[in-house]
Amino acid sequence: MAIHNDVSKKHDAILLFDCTNGNPNGDPDAGNQPRIDPETSNGLVTDACIKRKIRNYINIRCKDEPDAEKYKLFIEEGSVLNNTIQRGYIATDNYTKGMKEGTPEQQAAVNKWMQSNFYDIRMFGGVLSTGLKAGQVWGPIQVSPARSLDAVLPQSLTITRCAITEAKEGKDNKTMGRKEMIPYGLYQSYLFYNPHLRDESVTEKDLELFWEAVLKAWEFDRSSARGFMAVRGLWIFSHESKYGNIPVHQLFSRLSTHSNSENPRSFDDYTVMFDDSDLDGVTVTTLDSKGVLTSG
Question: For the range 49-52, what are the long-range contacts, defined as Cβ-Cβ under 8 Å and sequence gap of 24 or more?
Fold first, then answer.
């Protein structure tokens, strides 16, 4: 078993990804413009956005697996959460028509069923008390919002359509719209796996799929709106002790990224260095040039 898939150990990770000529995460409260820190103009991508990409990949990856039933998603497009929780009550023989709230024992049984059958619940956690109550799950994986290493330049491009919607518009009255984008941004996010929050239903395969999804999620999330996005680096720190061997801030400070250009426009404009000396009790797994995880 690869050490970074060991569910009994503590893992911390740094993720680098970039966006070229696209909008990595639009803000609906700002006309879908790319999210930025208003003080520094650094770009932002929410943790919810990153987890959405991971969920989408898991859905694609596992739908034809023999154990696909264990890799369903609680949070997915078009789902009705309260109905899904009710399904848990029915599946565990705890549902009575018209019931408003289960007993603590019933809620615990449904909570266990939800974790066993929904990948995102057992890995990310979730609130299961929006309808029939089933408690709350603190998942072992946490994802931080991503921040670009340099300021980004949001641009709003006017686009036109050569066809018209209705004849009365006239052939010269072209439909117009807008596309929001940045020329380039290199983003950094942090990922954490806490074995103390792991339910017994979390398996080695679950963790292996998570790292796989982190690497490949953007490969199956292409759109003209997002431009070209790619994972540029993943460093996973696996501790021998489940309580951690080196404080995480000290591990993360070993990665240094420097821009070689005043206005970086590609990953080639950066120099990325990692100090792997004196890592007693910590194994580092990295993403190599072919997109493969290697431990060392």
Answer: 49/24, 49/25, 50/143, 50/146, 50/189, 51/120, 51/124, 51/143
How far apart CA 133 and CA 86 sit, in angstroms, is 9
Instruction: Report, as an integer, the average pLDDT of 71-95.
Output: 91
Q: Is the dihedral of CA 72, 74, 77, 82 positive or negative?
A: positive
CA-to-CA separations, 64 to 69, 103, 196, in angstroms, rounded: 10, 36, 31
Measured distance CA(195)–CA(210) in Å, rounded: 14
Beta strands in 194-263 (DSSP E): 228-239, 255-259
Q: Outline where DSSP puts E strands in 74-174.
A: 125-127, 136-138, 141-143, 146-151, 155-161
Task: Retrieve residue 35's tokens.
Answer: 């999210």
Cross-strand pairs, 42: 151
pTM of model > 0.90: yes
* pLDDT tens digits along 174-210: 667 889 999 999 999 999 999 999 999 999 999 999 9
Q: Is residue 296 very low, low, confident or very high in pLDDT (cuts 50, 70, 90)?
A: low
Torsion of Cα atoms, 91 then 94 then 99 then 101, to 10°: -100
Packed helices 104-117 and 81-91: angle between N→C axes, nearest 10 degrees: 110
Q: Map tokens 């969920």 to a residue.
A: 55
Q: How far apart are CA 186 and CA 265, in angstroms?
A: 9
- Give me the phi and psi of 281, to 5 degrees please: 85, 0
The dihedral built from the CA positions of residue 126, 244, 252 and 236, taken in this order, carries a sign that is: negative
Closest C-alpha among 260, 292, 255, 229 to residue 45 = 229
User: How does pLDDT run across 21-78, given as a tens digit for each residue?
Assistant: 999 999 999 999 999 999 999 999 999 999 999 999 999 999 988 989 999 999 988 8
- Please report, in angstroms and rounded to a whole number, the separation of the first and last CA atoms in the chain: 14
